[in-house]
Amino acid sequence: MLHSESMKDVYPMRINKYLAMKNHSTRRGADELIKKHLVLINGRFAVLGDKVEEADTVEVRANKKALIYEYYAYNKPVGTVTLAPTSGQKDIKGSINLAGVFPVGRLDKDSHGLIILTNDGRITDRLLNPKHTHEKEYVVTVKEKLRANFKNKIEPGVQIENEKTLPCKVQILGEKKFSIVLGEGKKHQIRRMCSALFAEVEDLERVRIMNIKLGKLGSNQYKKIEGEELAIFLKSLGL
């Protein structure tokens, strides 16, 4: 694996320049490696002209071997960032002993729960692109008692700043607790939806992505996704 150094001022960087900077090859030589499908960025084959960010994982194969895809369910703790930690922060990659995989999507620092880790770059767009809708379920605890009309107000969609969220499914679990199923993933969406309805989030946990469930997985632990669970997941993504 090749890991980027702290050069934030030059990113994003063309992949051939990146490989040359790492003394792996000349830029022309890097282009040849890319043409031969020997370079991967976050698990997908690089193409000529691709650019990489500082947090990207770049892999150069010594020879063209078939990539064995791996998928893991990981329980991200509160306080751990998904990618690109700043000074003093801990990210997922630095928290677990699992090489060659990357997180698909994000979960903010103050939230915890399920993130999928993989070396399969094919699933990134299929899972995250807004044109695709896939269910993600969260359990939310707020600081004050929920208003009586909270469920009726949030389910049709909430106006947050200059956009309205899509309809969602909510189940009230207690005076200060509910579960919510979303088909989209705007930045800090649940916290912003709650704020618009006069509810401040105290704890937010993602417990499901499509058919992949967090279950009893402990904090900062991971498990391999395989068998029927994996087959259903990939089929739902068209793979």
Kindly provide the name of the CATH class of the largest domain. Alpha Beta
On the 0 to 100 scale, the average pLDDT is 89
Radius of gyration equals: 20 Å
The main pleated sheet reads as: 9 strands, mixed
Number of strands: 18
Output the CATH topology of the largest domain. Alpha-Beta Plaits
Q: What is the ordering of alpha helices and beta strands?
A: EHHEEEEEEEEEHEHEEEEHEEEH
End-to-end Cα distance, whole Å, is 26 Å
**pLDDT < 50 stretches:** 3-8
Helix content: 10-25%
Number of domains: 3
Structural class: alpha+beta
CATH architecture of the largest domain: 2-Layer Sandwich
Molecular structure report:
The protein is an alpha+beta fold and 239 residues long. It has three domains: 8-60, Roll (Structural Genomics Hypothetical 15.5 Kd Protein In mrcA-pckA Intergenic Region, Chain A); 71-119 and 215-236, Pseudouridine synthase I, catalytic domain, N-terminal subdomain (Alpha-Beta Plaits), CATH 3.30.70; 136-209, Alpha-L RNA-binding motif (Alpha-Beta Plaits, 2-Layer Sandwich). Helix content is 19%, strand content 29%. It contains six helices and 18 strands. The strands form five sheets. Strands 6, 9, 10, 11, 14, 15, 16, 17 and 18 form a nine-stranded mixed β-sheet that branches. A three-stranded antiparallel β-sheet has the order 3-2-5, with no helix packed on it. It has a two-stranded antiparallel ribbon with strand order 1-4. Strand 9 and strand 10 (112-118) form a beta hairpin. Helix 1 crosses helix 2. The longest helix is centred in the C-terminal third of the chain and has 10 residues, at 227-236. It is elongated. The chain starts with 12 loop residues before the first strand and ends with a helix. Mean pLDDT is 89; it is low at 3-8.
